[in-house]
Design goal:
Elements lengths: L16 E2 L5 E2 L19 E3 L14 H13 L4 E6 L10 E6 L4 H13 L38
Antiparallel strand pairs: 1-2, 3-5, 4-5
């Protein structure tokens, strides 16, 4: 399966570039020894189980999955995003899971909870777009409508 070396998303065979990253060429594997390898995907576990979703599974729209993935990678937790294919979502948008090795699940959940539930200075109110995913945000928003990032003191 092809992978994007920048956002670490897995693609179906036949894709050659990552649309999310502006056309970055896909590679057959991610090379770092600590990184998750394509052949390890089957042994990984989805994280973000505490985050409510409309389909009852830890599967997120592309923007939110990108935010979750980046939080884990920034914390030094090897993680990967993969398509969630267990049926259509109510809005028919594709969903993605962020997956980690079994040994990293507890730490990953802890890191995600800390980053998403506790307002942080870094998540201060944006002017008109979300700092994490770039979505347009209303001035009075308390969270991003696309990725769910919480803002300190409103939007």
């Amino acid at each position: 399966m092809p992978w994007c070396p920048q956002c670490r998303s897995e693609y179906r065979p036949g894709y050659t570039e990552c649309k999310s990253c502006g056309g970055v060429a896909l590679v057959e594997s991610l090379l770092d020894d600590e990184d998750l390898k394509p052949e390890e995907l089957e042994g990984t576990i989805p994280v973000g189980t505490f985050i409510p979703t409309e389909i009852g599974q830890p599967a997120f729209i592309l923007a939110r999955s990108a935010v979750l993935l980046q939080i884990l990678l920034d914390a030094g937790i090897p993680a990967v995003r993969s398509p969630f294919e267990d049926g259509p979502s109510p809005d028919m948008q594709p969903r993605f899971q962020v997956r980690v090795r079994p040994k990293d699940v507890a730490r990953a959940e802890e890191v995600l909870k800390a980053a998403l539930e506790a307002p942080a200075e870094a998540n201060a109110a944006p002017s008109d777009s979300c700092e994490a995913c770039g979505a347009k945000v209303q001035p009075d928003a308390t969270e991003c409508p696309d990725c769910g990032l919480s803002f300190v003191g409103g939007g």
